[in-house]
Amino acid sequence: MKWDPTHIKQLQNNSLFKGLSEAQLSQALANAQVREKKSGEALFSQGEPADRFFWLRTGLLKLYRLSPSGEEKIIEIIRPGQTFAEAIMFAGKPNHYHVGAQFIEHGEVWCFSNQDFKEILGHSVETCFRLMTSMSQRLHKHINEIDRLTLQTATDRVINYLLQNRLEHGDSNEVRLLTSKQTLAAHLSIKPETLSRTLGKLTREGLIRTDGHTIRLLDLKALHSRVAL
After folding, report:
1. E strand or H helix at 209
2. Coil, strand, or helix at residue 34?
3. What is the pLDDT of residues 146-156, one digit of tens each?
4. CA–CA gap between residue 22 and residue 223 (Å, rounded)
5. DSSP 8-state secondary structure symbol assigned to residue 19
6. May I ask the CATH architecture of the domain 153-228?
7. I want to staple 202 with a disulfide (CB 3.0 to 4.6 A). Which of 1, 59, 207, 228 is the partner?
8. How far apart, in Å, are the Cα atoms of 66 and each of 47, 76, 115, 116, 186?
9. Which residues contact 69 (CB under 8 A, 6 or more apart)?
């Protein structure tokens, strides 16, 4: 397959691929696949055999788990430039995906062989440390998520989401919701009507202003103090 040089540069901005030698990058790409998916299409299902990890080039997708009753819990929303499912390459065999992955928005994903990348890791201590850093950051993020779900009110969760989203996008006072409010509510483990009521309450209090999918944070100090209580 002929790889677009612009797309390769985008890939190399990701911490796992940054610093790979030309030979290592070629090895990683040797058996890689590119898949395009429409909104609503699945990439893989929970429990499916796992032999690849992924890099999202465009679009949005959700990682989720299903309860025995069929209730969906969104674990993470993956944005362009992120890798995911890389930790599975270190699990014992047989490997299975512990979550499902479904596209929220049409996009393109690159699929990398776990075996090929493990061979690269065997010859690159630097890449091993980058992978460990990435996995540690994700683990810390999920621990914080557990704290939010168990210790915080619905209002706290919404405010924390807005503040965190702001930090992840250059400290802008404007937050653009990349998903539907229904998907965001599921991610925060609240009902859509609760999310709407919370955003309305924060608007009436003068803390935010909403315009479609854009939310402007009007009083950062007050928002921070609300979740610090």
Report:
1. strand 208-211
2. strand
3. 666 665 788 98
4. 47
5. T
6. Orthogonal Bundle (1.10)
7. 207
8. 11, 13, 28, 30, 12
9. none
Q: What is the mean pLDDT of residues 1-7?
A: 88
Write phi, then psi, for 66 (nearest 5 degrees). -110, 135
Do 153-228 and 5-150 fall under one CATH topology? no
Domain ranges of the chain: 5-150, 153-228
Angle at 51 between CA 114 and CA 65, to 5 degrees: 115
pLDDT, residue 87, reads 82
Residue type, 167: L
Q: Which strand (E) or helix (H) includes residue 182?
A: helix 181-187
C-alpha 14/C-alpha 55 separation (Å) is 9
Tell me, what amino acid is at 151? Answer: L
Backbone angles phi, psi at 111, to 5 degrees: -115, 125
The predicted structure's pLDDT at residue 211: 87
Q: Using alpha carbons, list the distances in angstroms from residue 167 to 141, 163, 164, 195, 220.
A: 14, 6, 5, 21, 12
Closest CA to 74 of 38, 42, 99, 49: 99
Which one, of 219, 152, 158, lies nearest residue 185 by Cα? 158
Count of positions (residues) in the chain:
229
- Above 70 in pLDDT, residue 44? yes
Please compute the mean of the pLDDT values over residues 120-137 and round it to a whole number: 78
Assign 192 a pLDDT band (cuts: 50, 70, 90): confident
Identify the pLDDT of residue 148: 65
Considering only the top CATH level, what class is 5-150? Answer: mainly beta
Rounded distance, CA 37 to CA 107, Å?
Answer: 6
